[in-house]
Design goal:
InterPro entries: Cyt_P450, Cyt_P450_CS, Cyt_P450_E_grp-IV, Cyt_P450_sf. This protein is of the alpha+beta class. The protein contains 19 helices and 9 strands.
């Protein structure tokens, strides 16, 4: 009760302040002046941040654009909310590469994503290095990459295209984001467990585990934005969103246990010996590893892989289709690039077009389209690091031990100083060398969608392969039309998902 009383004492004047703050902004004749957070006695910059939480992504971008790519801030004294936010490439290189030992993810990050405790996403140091080496060995092996590619092709051919053909023939509008999330949930489960849950189907079965993963990312975002003592108190009391997260964790744990059992049953039915290693999925390489003998650690690791696979691609694909639906000229270029491959397939009477991963591997403009989407709409729009010892950034800003550092990928992709006057335009050509069909070499300190330095994304090429296969099949076989009147905006989450989905209609293209 004392915690609740303290919270009320703080929140009542805070609510009054936010009301006055919003009112003053509506009366202001200079909206740009209202962008920068005001530092208030006792509360620091927390009220300004909370007042703009509804528009967090654009607010962060405007603050960084107006402050030269870097900003120091803090919350109430003693709340542990000192932070430095940046999208400066020089600082990013310093944080991720030059001095990366001084900027781990940190204990607070691991606490925020406690459902993945011990997984690659949350650990640092020698333990992280050892487990990364193991994971690289798994996903870089030919048996794994070949199976992922084959399942992606078959999933598109046998499930996605027939479902989209039905939507086109009936003129039904649908949520493309939901379809892409379901597709990637099935494909990721197959890569992780060797089991396809079958959530991508016409009857749209309930997908509680996917909803639970969304909850993890939404509550994780809110944990980042409030004093740790507050959300930890809410967790202890099991109230509010912390109670919702508690239920989501139970759903995900149950999904992992049930899916492992289903995989074991499947193996028994096809005659595999229980001690025989079945290659082709991640679980096979972890389930008998002594380092993962603890059931909680194995569960956390598998949830880590599920979130990494489903969330990155499942979040990016709707933004790709959103941008392509508004740029028919770009769609035409992609189809022209696919045309030589398609003409060969038509000659062999293959019907609905599905492109093999090897066939799209060399398609430069399609890759440039993916990169341009990731520039403007990075699925993980914010990175968090912790400062171990006091340091001075290349920009001249001081950071102190214990400070949180936030790197805004969303803001970085919109900075005129980094991308030119057309930085807000969707233009895949910016990724091509002038007068050629070759990709520019854009350093990761400027384009951070696949991370940078020692933590650079291990599954980059697998992700690109999957996106190319899906986008090529959809855009060759269908015209995508946005339904008018919908509001496209990102939700408040660690993922840049669309708050209201992406409602589209399809038209089948003639052969």
């Amino acid at each position: 009760m004392s915690l609740i009383s303290t919270a009320l004492v703080l929140l009542v004047p805070l609510g009054l302040y936010l009301y006055l703050l919003q009112s003053s902004r509506r009366r202001s004749n200079n909206p740009a002046a209202a962008v920068f957070p005001t530092k208030w006695p006792m509360l620091g910059m927390l009220p300004s941040l909370l007042a703009n939480m509804y528009n967090f992504h654009e607010y962060s971008y405007l603050v960084l654009a107006g402050s030269g790519l870097n900003f120091n801030g803090d919350g109430p004294p003693g709340a542990g909310m000192r932070f430095f936010i940046t999208c400066d490439p020089a600082n990013i290189q310093h944080i991720f590469t030059t001095n990366y030992h001084n900027f781990p993810k940190g204990a607070e990050f691991a606490a925020i994503f406690d459902i993945m405790a011990g997984g690659l996403f949350t650990i640092d140091g020698e333990l992280w290095h050892r487990r990364r080496v193991k994971f690289v060995g798994v996903i870089s092996s030919p048996w794994f990459t070949d199976r992922v590619a084959a399942h992606c092709h078959d999933k598109v051919k046998d499930h996605l295209l027939p479902l989209l053909a039905h939507m086109a023939s009936t003129g039904t509008s649908f949520d493309m984001q939901e379809l892409m999330v379901r597709l990637m949930f099935d494909m990721t489960a197959m890569a992780v467990f060797g089991v396809d849950p079958g959530f991508l189907s016409l009857d749209m079965p309930p997908i509680d585990a996917s909803i639970a993963m969304d909850t993890v990312m939404e509550v994780g975002f809110l944990r980042h934005t409030m004093p740790a003592s507050l959300w930890k108190a809410m967790r202890w009391l099991n109230i509010g969103l912390e109670r919702k997260l508690h239920e989501a964790k139970k759903v995900l744990h149950r999904f992992v246990v049930d899916t492992i059992e289903r995989r074991k049953t499947t193996r028994e039915n096809v005659g595999h010996d229980e001690d025989e290693e079945v290659v082709g999925d991640i679980l096979s390489s972890y389930i008998n590893d002594p380092d993962f003998a603890d059931d909680d650690l194995l569960r956390a690791t598998l949830i880590n892989f599920m979130i990494a696979g489903r969330d990155t691609i499942g979040t990016t694909l709707p933004w790709i289709f959103y941008n392509l639906a508004q740029n028919p000229n770009i769609v035409s270029i992609i189809r022209n690039e696919l045309s030589p491959i398609a003409s060969h397939k038509v000659a062999h009477g293959m019907g609905a077009m599905v492109f093999e991963p090897e066939e799209t591997k060399s398609l430069v403009y399609l890759r440039a389209t993916l990169y341009e989407t990731l520039r403007l709409y990075p699925p993980a729009h914010m990175e968090r690091k912790t400062v171990v010892t006091d340091d001075i950034m290349p920009s001249g800003h001081e950071v102190h031990a214990g400070d949180a550092i936030f790197i805004s990928l969303y803001s970085m992709g919109r900075m005129e100083s980094l991308w030119g006057k057309d930085c807000l335009d969707f233009n895949p050509n910016r990724w091509l060398l002038e007068g050629s069909n070759k990709l520019k070499n854009v350093p990761s300190r400027k384009f951070l969608a696949f991370n940078s330095g020692p933590r650079v994304c291990m599954g980059k090429e697998i992700a690109v392969m999957q996106m190319k296969t899906i986008v090529a099949a959809v855009m060759w076989n269908f015209d995508v039309e946005l339904v008018e009147g919908q509001s496209i905006q990102p939700k408040l989450s660690c993922l840049l998902q669309m708050k209201n989905g992406l409602i589209v209609k399809l038209k089948k293209r003639e052969a």
